[in-house]
């Protein structure tokens, strides 16, 4: 008898197969010859990889600007590509998995650390979390800021679920850039946690934050650090590359400069505490996904056979102890990693002038 998940996968397969039959070229824009951050033509290939999270077909290239250090997807996903590669990752077939990750002890610790980063700058009355997902950050941040009203904004239906389940007081679904005008000067804090790297135009997102904030309000940004030594050591297996979803990787100096241009004053930067201690584990999982037989996925032409499914199960059982050891190493090394350039993320707090 087919399980509920298998039935869902079977129901999704015809749509995916129809899209794939039309080819992958339409999922990409033309390749750029200049840097989207500084317009320099001094580009070089930085990385070529595949979709490790979902195993959808396609090859993705990251280029690095030799003038400013900006790393970006090139060619970039088109609107059709964004729809195809995001679908069933954070919602749909992937919703249950993402909910488990968002509620994990590690995630809760990260959420609370992010919320505490604003404590030196006063007690906000109203806070907008952009890219909020299902609102788990807001639920934890309310423990640190009990008098603050939290609102959330995102593209997916998760933001509406967050409002229904009481994690946020108000939900906005859609584009932050498109909605910024109606949110003008309404917020004491705008936060963007691992959001900016997903966006088509990061500078426009910063401008939208400036619009939504009251004078003297604060913007909290946390992103993967493309200058991390871990990124160089682990290459395409480094988890924060997260292709094809991450479109831009902004070096710290570049982000601080852009914030100043948009009318902000940077009041704090931190390359240590935002580190997410999963580099070795996520690299091993990415590598494992590339060598094990695939699970049943609707973007595959057909369901894997019994032999393939058994080989996958046995492979997972065999490597489970190794993954547990790597999790332990990641956490054991975290205090040291945070104090070095191995740290994989950074945080900026900026005041709207």
UniProtKB/TrEMBL annotation:
Any one GO biological process: methylation
InterPro entries registered for this protein in UniProt: SAM-dependent_MTases_sf
CDD domains the record matches: AdoMet_MTases
Domain of life: Bacteria
Pfam families: Methyltransf_23
Membrane-spanning parts: 314-333
Keyword vocabulary terms for this entry: Membrane, Methyltransferase, Transferase, Transmembrane, Transmembrane helix
Any one Gene Ontology molecular-function term assigned to this protein's record: methyltransferase activity
Cytoplasm recorded as keyword: no
Protein name: Methyltransferase type 12
Organism: Streptomyces angustmyceticus
